[in-house]
Fold Threonine synthase.
Amino acid sequence: MKEKSHELRCTGCGARIAGTDATSNFRCAQCGELYEVVYPWSSDGANLPNAGALRWLWQERRSSTLPIDQSGVWRFRDLLPILDDPSHAVTLREGNTPLYELPRCGKIAGVDWLLAKHQGMNPTGSFKDTGMTAALSVAAERGFKVVACASTGNTSAAMAAYAARAGLTSIVFIPEGKIAWGKLSQSMDYGALTIQLKSDFDGCVRVLNDLVKRLPIYMLNSVNPYRLEGQKTPALEMVEQMDWQVPEHVIVPGGNLANSSALGKGFEEMKRLGLISRVPKISVIQAHGANPLYRAMQASGGEQLEPVVADTRATAIRIGNPASWKKAVRIIRATGGWVEEVSEQEIAQAKAEIGAEGIGCEPASAVTLAGLKKLTRDGRIGREERVVLLLTGHTLKDPEYTIDFHRGTLFSDQEASSLRKPPIVLEARTDAVLKALESSIQL
Ligand SMILES: *Cc1c(COP(=O)(O)O)cnc(C)c1O
Ligand SMILES: [Zn+2]
């Protein structure tokens, strides 16, 4: 018999099952909690892969022409052996995203050394690609013909693209009217069946959960534990890009709350294998209008979470009933990180500051910088700490937001900001332009 490469372990009761035995909604049949993927080396010290050999191998693969070696996810496949045959991987060469320095944002936030891991530089423009290549490859290898997700937009864009590459049918459930145009257009472009439900994200999840019980559809929401195996690889990439140094702090936006725990899993596994000597603090930032985790931490230290009705222009994190909140609480506690909330004004200002460094990101990603400012102000992060912001999505995902910010119409009480640069409309005459330049820029 073939040796098991991995199992699923229930994060509630600890029960272990084979990967193929999970129910269609990826909840434990005994206790209803979510699974995580575990490997022989997760608990057994005898099976640990050799850290030095892995580092060398991952470096070597960078010069390979094989698609799975060119992928920034599958290049690390030794730590995610979830496929029977790695050549089954459906890849768009995801990952391999840049780690940028943000000196001006660092100055504003009060830290000496600030970096951004820009996951918006993935093939469909968000970190969801790293998770989707993993989970969709599992779906394809197991013979599923139809995949589906409920999404605030980026998951559907990623799923539609990877499903199209694999020749699978994909069904997208998104909230009606509360989704950024860039994202909606992507799922149509990649040929998904797009269904807009007259509800919010949480309503889309409810319908999808019912549907997968009745039809042979593979669910690709982040309750699917294979997504997190892909989403842990930016942690590996990050420390590789820092020459195997570990930052003190990684700051992540919190929506459905899977990504924070995925990154944590990546760091914890690297520590277990001796690739790094410690795990960074992982902090999660939510929008004030979609802050169930922040409230849960305030009210009960993360013991209980009350769903909220979510509202924020940062649509990627407009989620009131986050599925993976317990996983997030565990990693925040284990690493000593924080949970903060930020206002719509703070998000808009931070997004403009990231844009003004020539980087740009979507609104949900900018909560990281807005949150960092609060954490330094409150003395929770010191000036000398090396901080990495996880920028989750590309600025072109939501151009309407950016234009509304600069025009001053983002929300009714938008404050003045020196970063606002609305377009100037002039007669096509040189003297008119010269006059405008005099008052706008220094020459
Ligand atoms: C999905 C998403 C998030 C939230 O990630 P979770 O894992 O749901 O917490 C944040 N930012 C962007 C751009 C996203 O697409
Ligand atoms: Zn269980």
Notes: The chain has a mean pLDDT of 95. The radius of gyration is 22 Å. The first strand starts at residue 7 and ends at 10. The CA atoms of residues 290 and 310 lie 4 Å apart.
